[in-house]
C-alpha cells in the first residue's frame, strides 16, 4: 500500500513522495493537497468517480497529469467518471458526453464532439464563444454573455436564461422550456430552434 501510494503521488508530479507522506496537510501547498485528494480517490479504484473541478488552480502541466491519471483509471479499471467543470477544454479532452447546465437545470446534452461543434442552446453558444483563441494578428476582446446569472431562489416561471439571451421570444418569459430531443442522443431546452445559428 505504501509503495502504491508513493508511485501514485509520483505520477501526479509530487516530488519526494516518501517525505510528503509524512507531512501534515498544512505543510503542503493547495495544488499538492488537490493532487493528493485525486490520488486518494483513484487508489480505491471506485466504480464511479465524481470529480468536481479536479484541475482548478493547477498549472497546465500538472493539470494534464491529473487528467491522464483519470483517463487511465477510466480505461484500466472501467471506472465511470462524472466530471464537473467550467473548463470546456478539460471537458473536451476527457468526456464522452456533455451536459450543459444553467441555473441548476440541464439546458443541452449530447456527444461531446458533436455538441461542441454544433451547439444548440444560446448559453452553450455563449460559453464556446468566450473561449480565448490563439490566432494570427491582434486578438480582439473576449466575448461575454451579457447580464448576470439569476438568483436561484427567485427564478420565476420563464426560462432563466431569457434576460441574457439574444434569441429570446415572448414565450421565453412566461414558460420554462423542457428538455426535448432534437436528434438521436441530443437534447436541448429552448423554445427557439437555433440549429445552424452561429451566435
Describe this structure in words.
This protein has 199 residues and is α+β, with helices and mostly antiparallel strands. It has helices at 2-11, 17-20, 30-43, 60-76, 88-94, 112-117, 122-129, 171-174; strands spanning 48-52, 80-84, 97-102, 105-111, 180-183, 186-188. Strands 3-4-6-5 form a four-stranded antiparallel sheet. The longest helix is centred in the middle third of the chain and has 17 residues, at 60-76. The radius of gyration is 20 Å and the shape is elongated. It starts with a helix and ends in an 11-residue tail after the last strand.
Task: Walk me through the topology.
Blueprint: H1 2-11, H2 17-20, H3 30-43, E1 48-52, H4 60-76, E2 80-84, H5 88-94, E3 97-102, E4 105-111, H6 112-117, H7 122-129, H8 171-174, E5 180-183, E6 186-188
Parallel strand pairs: 1-2
Antiparallel strand pairs: 3-4, 4-6, 5-6
Helix pairs in contact: 1-3
Based on the model shown, name its key terms.
199 residues; alpha+beta; four-stranded antiparallel β-sheet; two-stranded parallel sheet; 8 helices; 35% helix; 15% strand
